[in-house]
Amino acid sequence: MKRLLVSLSLLLGAAASAHAEGPLVVELFASKNCRACPAAYRTMKTVEAEQGDKVLVLTWAVDYWDYLGGKESMALPESKDRQRAYVDHFSLRGPYTPQTVYNGLEQTAGNKPTKVGAALMKAGMAAPVDVHLQRSGQRVTLTGQPGGLSDIWWVSYLDTDDNPTAMPNPVTSVRQIGPWLGGKAEIEMPACKSACVLIVQEAGMGRVLAAMRAG
Q1: Is there a single domain that holds both residue 151 and residue 97?
Q2: C-alpha distance across the termini of the chain, in Å
Q3: What pLDDT is stored for residue 160 in this prediction?
Q4: Which structural domain range is residue 154 located in?
Q5: Same domain, 7 and 96
Q6: Whether this model's pTM surpasses 0.85
Q7: Phi and psi at residue 22, to the nearest 5°
Q8: 96 and 140 share a domain?
């Protein structure tokens, strides 16, 4: 395991300098009834420790494994909808846990450190896009040309101080602020109870074009 973590650290170092504006968004789909998920939690926490603010891990809890044990209290209907969209986007046979998705560009099992490192590197080395977020108080200015329809998402999650679970940054709510076709848009950020992130993403759960932490 130590060798795998060293390899992961080297791969992350290579990816750190090239990813798109804002943190590289890593989405983990997990459940407490998933036996492989604790290993994914450890891998994701290693990613956070190594990369700090350069990476944002979000855990989307799902409930389709509830029949194997107790109810997953953190599960959201939106988690399943989001994962199904990624199944289509990546032409997968079906959803699984612990799946991880990297800026909407790469996906792999989150309990495999070397595969995680490789996915991070590939996502981080993607060509830059002309999309920018600038914050002034509670207002964010979005500018650029995404090259097609994009969605603006507001995601709330529990960070280290407020998180009572083993999941890294479990998502507690998500809302679509609106579609965006490019140009300039002014966004008034909603209230944030714990921690939140604004995500601009190609429609259909495509590439994450920009992200900004809030709260």
Answers
A1: no
A2: 35
A3: 83
A4: 131-214
A5: yes
A6: yes
A7: 85, 180
A8: no
